[in-house]
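Need residues for this backbone.
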C-alpha cells in the first residue's frame, strides 16, 4: 500500500562533526605517535651523518694510500712535500692529501719556491674542502668548513685531526713504520673544529687544515712530548715549530700509572666553562668518535675503551697488543 502523501517523512539527524572528547582523543593519539616517531627520525638522521663523516675519513684513507703508492711514504706535518721539495717547503698532512682527493686545482695554487700551505690559514676568501667537514661538528664551524674569527678573518677549519704520533718527526711508511700493523694504528680521527671556542683557550683548540704551526691551529692531536729529547726535527721559528708542544699523556691508574694518551671525548661541552680538551680526539656523534686506521678502515670508538688500549692504537710501533675492549 502506497504511503499517504500527507504522512510525515522520517526525521534524519545530521552529525555536525567530532565531539570535544573525540577530538581530544585523536590529538592525544597523534601526540603519542609523534613521540614514538621522533627518536626513530633522530636515529636515522644521526646514522646518515655518521655515514657521511665515515665516508670523509675513508676518502682521506684512500688519499693516504695514494701518497704511499706515488712516493713510497706518507706526509710529515710541517715539513716539505714531497720530501726534500724546494717548492712546498712546509705543508700540513691534509694539504698533502689534496691531489689524491680530486683537489688538484687547489693544490697547484702553491707553485712558487718556498711555498707553505699555511698561506691558506685564514683570509677574507676562505677555501673550504667539503671532505674536511663533518655535519656532526657543533663547535662553530660553518657548513662550508669555515669560521669567522674575532678579527673578521675566515679560517679554513676541519672536523678532523691527524695523529702526531704517526705524522711528526718522520716520513711514515706503511710498509715499515707500522710495525704494530696498519689495522692496529690510527691515522686521522674526529676532532671538533673549535675546541674550545676561539678566545677561550688560545688557538690550540682551532683545527685549521692548512696550518703548519701549533700557534695558528695545527690540525693535529696527541703531541708526543714537550722537550728537546723528543723525536721532532730541530725546533725553530723558520721551521714553523712552536717552541714547546704540550703533552697529551697522563698517568693511567689501571696500568701502574704508566703515561698513556688521554681518552677520546664524545660530545664535550665547548666554550667558556666547558670541558672540551683540544689535546684529545673529540666529536659530535652519539656514543662514539670515528677514526681512520692505517689499513683504510673506519671504526667508531666508544668512551669505554681503556687508556692502555687507546695508547696502543695511537702508537705505530709500540709493540702493544690491543685489548679486548677494542
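Answer:
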Amino acid at each position: 500500500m502506497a504511503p499517504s502523501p500527507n504522512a510525515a517523512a522520517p526525521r534524519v539527524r545530521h552529525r555536525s562533526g567530532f565531539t570535544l572528547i573525540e577530538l581530544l582523543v585523536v590529538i592525544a593519539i597523534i601526540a603519542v605517535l609523534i613521540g614514538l616517531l621522533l627518536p626513530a627520525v633522530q636515529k636515522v638522521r644521526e646514522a646518515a651523518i655518521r655515514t657521511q663523516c665515515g665516508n670523509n675519513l675513508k676518502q682521506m684513507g684512500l688519499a693516504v694510500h695514494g701518497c704511499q703508492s706515488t712516493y713510497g711514504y706518507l706526509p710529515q706535518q710541517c715539513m716539505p712535500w714531497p720530501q726534500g721539495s724546494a717548492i712546498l717547503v712546509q705543508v700540513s698532512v691534509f694539504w698533502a692529501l689534496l691531489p689524491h682527493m680530486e683537489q688538484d686545482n687547489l693544490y697547484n695554487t702553491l707553485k712558487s719556491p718556498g711555498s707553505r700551505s699555511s698561506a691558506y690559514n685564514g683570509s677574507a676568501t676562505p677555501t673550504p674542502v667539503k671532505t674536511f667537514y663533518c655535519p656532526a661538528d657543533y663547535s662553530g664551524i660553518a657548513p662550508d668548513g669555515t669560521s669567522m674569527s674575532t678579527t673578521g678573518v675566515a679560517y679554513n677549519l676541519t672536523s678532523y685531526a691527524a695523529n702526531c704520533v704517526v705524522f711528526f718527526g718522520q716520513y711514515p711508511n706503511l710498509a715499515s713504520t707500522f710495525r704494530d700493523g696498519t689495522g692496529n694504528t690510527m691515522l686521522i680521527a674526529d676532532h671538533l673544529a673549535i675546541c674550545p671556542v676561539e678566545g677561550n683557550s688560545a688557538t690550540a683548540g682551532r683545527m685549521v687544515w692548512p696550518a703548519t704551526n701549533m700557534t695558528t691551529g695545527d690540525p693535529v692531536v696527541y703531541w708526543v712530548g714537550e722537550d728537546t729529547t723528543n723525536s721532532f726535527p730541530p725546533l725553530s721559528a723558520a721551521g714553523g715549530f712552536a717552541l714547546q708542544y704540550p703533552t697529551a699523556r697522563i698517568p693511567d691508574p689501571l696500568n701502574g700509572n704508566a703515561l698513556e694518551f688521554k681518552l677520546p671525548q664524545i660530545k664535550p661541552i665547548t666554550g667558556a666553562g666547558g670541558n672540551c680538551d683540544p689535546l684529545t680526539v673529540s666529536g659530535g656523534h652519539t656514543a662514539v668518535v670515528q677514526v681512520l686506521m692505517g689499513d683504510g678502515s673506519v671504526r667508531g670508538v666508544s668512551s669505554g675503551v681503556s687508556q692502555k688500549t687507546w695508547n696502543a692504537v695511537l702508537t705505530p710501533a709500540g709493540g702493544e697488543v690491543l685489548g679486548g675492549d677494542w
